[in-house]
Amino acid sequence: MAQELKLAVNRSRDTLVADALGAASLMILLFVGLWLPGLI
């Protein structure tokens, strides 16, 4: 089971990095969107 999981992570490493960057950018947009009206 652990070996299968390791193989799956190794095969999809590029997409995992892209998905993590996408999730991080969405969180940043959310925080900026919620913070910005407080400045105005």
Brief write-up:
The chain crosses the membrane at residues 16-36. By secondary structure, this protein is mainly α.
Shape: rod-shaped
Count of separate DSSP helical elements: 2
- Residue share in β-strands: under 5%
The string of secondary-structure elements, in order, is: HH
Total strand segments: 0
Give the total of domains. 1
**Mean pLDDT over the residues:** 91
Task: Detail the poorly predicted runs.
Answer: none
Keywords: Membrane, Transmembrane, Transmembrane helix
Transmembrane segments: 16-36
What would you say this structure looks like, in words?
The mean pLDDT is 91. The chain has one domain. The termini are far apart. The protein has helices at residues 2-11, 13-39. The protein is rod-shaped and about 55 Å long. With 40 residues, the protein is mainly α.
Task: Give me some keywords for this one.
rod-shaped, transmembrane helix, 40 residues, mainly alpha, 2 helices
List the topology elements.
Blueprint (H helix, E strand, L loop, with lengths): L1 H10 L1 H27 L1
Keywords: Membrane, Transmembrane, Transmembrane helix
